[in-house]
Specification:
The complex is a heterodimer. Chain A has three helices and four strands, in the order βαββαβα. In chain A, a hairpin with a 2-residue loop joins strand 2 and strand 3. By secondary structure, chain B is mostly beta strands. The chains are: A alpha+beta, B mainly beta. At the A-B interface, helix 1 and helix 2 of A face strand 6 and strand 7 of B.
Chain lengths: ~80, ~170
């Protein structure tokens, strides 16, 4: 299991565009990808769940990745976050 | 005769012999219907968020196209997520990049978790003000869980009034 902790830098947080792109990235991997903000959790491969977290700039999120390809998933997701959020 | 044939086609067996059924999603706005591929935004036109259509609205009203529940109201009020009682998840995203307006020009009338019926007023927006601020108001209407279904088809004519038939979702029972 791998964990990423990340503080959102983007002004607009996770709205439709980055949510869609994040789901697209997460769906490449077979591992389970759970995004957590405070006490709320969302499946990183489902758009509505992700958008419901209402993640804004300065929010800290924790992403838990678990599965056979967790190493590549972790790298992929972290690169995505740095490039987009 | 044509109506009877269409009804049989809708409820009967699909090409591969499996039982299929379908659900019609209605138009949440009055306006001109365009294909998603014509929307000037990579995230929508690529179908990344799911399949659907877009409407160029004639006025600033968004009414419920379904009987179901409000899943998600963006606090920037420019987009809303709905779910039908059958489990279809629908995103209505008013305009492109309108998240940048941070709610200015939008009024919401429903809350997350609320039950809604066809025709209920969901959001009002100042169409002209938004256009004058430099944003397009073309509104993608997306079935975000399109991959759960056999197909999502645009069945509307060029122009729709609120709650005219818009999309047909085919799913296996």
């Amino acid at each position: 299991m791998k964990t990423i902790e990340y503080v959102i830098k983007d002004q607009l947080g996770i709205h439709a565009r980055p949510a869609g792109l994040l789901v697209k990235e997460a769906s490449k991997y077979s591992s389970s990808i759970i995004v957590k903000k405070e006490s709320k959790e969302a499946d990183g491969k489902r758009i509505f769940a992700l958008m419901s977290l209402g993640v804004k700039k300065e929010d800290k999120i924790t992403i838990t990745i678990s599965g056979d390809d967790e190493d590549s998933a972790c790298e992929g997701i972290l690169n995505f976050l740095k490039a987009n959020l | 005769m044509k109506k009877i044939l269409t009804a049989i086609k809708n409820i009967g067996k699909g090409i591969d012999g499996n039982q299929t059924s379908n659900l019609t999603i209605l138009a949440p706005m009055e306006g001109e219907v365009v294909e998603l591929m014509a929307v000037n935004d990579g995230v929508f036109l690529s179908g990344m968020l799911g399949e659907g259509v877009a409407i160029i609205p004639l006025n600033g009203r968004v009414v419920s196209p379904i009987n179901g529940r409000v899943i998600n109201v963006f606090d920037t009020k420019h987009a809303i997520g709905l779910a039908t009682k059958e489990g279809v998840e629908l995103l209505i995203h008013i305009g492109l990049d309108t998240v940048e307006l941070k709610g200015k020009g939008f009024t919401t009338y429903v809350k997350e978790g609320e039950l809604i019926s066809v025709g209920d007023l969901l959001i009002e927006f100042e169409k002209d003000e938004i256009i004058n601020s430099g944003y397009q108001v073309i509104t993608p209407i997306i079935v975000v869980n399109s991959s759960d279904y056999n197909g999502v088809k645009n069945i509307a004519s060029n122009k729709v009034k609120e709650n005219d038939a818009l999309l047909e979702i085919t799913y296996k029972i």
